[in-house]
């Protein structure tokens, strides 16, 4: 069992799933954090039919409480009738949507996200996301293949119906 730093009052356990152009990567993490940085529940972000990520996180506040099996990962890939503009750009803080993505499962928000892939290497993304994706705080780690992206800023709006026009 890992000893937590004095400011870390919370144990966390998370499982992550990333889909990128036919490849699926599942990873997990258990460790210490602060209660303000632990966001329990399910997060999903989708910027294309073959480009999506999800995370299920559990937070607890007693010694060794994250030793149980990892949270169940239940990503629903059924289209829900909503859609959002989508794009992804490296080395930029904005991206211009070139297509629309159909939202799936609990994704009911259009999410705009910026951050870092590595120190000094920026990214920008737009697509469908869950309400939890909208509340990603600066510094939140989001899985992307074998690495984690560090969120700098997120903003959201409701997803329009697939029969409507996306903004």
Q: How would you summarize this macromolecular structure in one to three sentences?
A:
It is found in: Secreted. With 167 residues, this protein is mainly β.
Please state the CA-atom Rg, rounded to the nearest Å: 16 Å
Query: What's the order of the H and E elements?
Result: EEEEEEEEHEE
Q: What gap, in angstroms, lies between the N and C termini?
A: 49 Å
Helical segment count: 1
Runs in which pLDDT lies below 50 for 5 or more consecutive residues are: none
How much of the sequence is in beta strands? over 45%
Main pleated-sheet profile: 10 strands, antiparallel
Tally of strands = 10
Helix content percent band: under 10%
How would you explain this protein's 3D organization?
This is Phospholipase A2 inhibitor and Ly6/PLAUR domain-containing protein-like. Keywords: Disulfide bond, Secreted. Its main location: secreted. The chain is mainly β and 167 residues long. It has one domain. Helices cover 2% and strands 56% of the residues. It has one helix and ten strands. Strands 1, 2, 3, 4, 5, 6, 7, 8, 9 and 10 form a ten-stranded antiparallel sheet that branches. A hairpin with a 2-residue loop joins strand 1 and strand 2. It is globular and about 45 Å long. The N and C termini lie far apart (49 Å). 34% of the residues are buried.
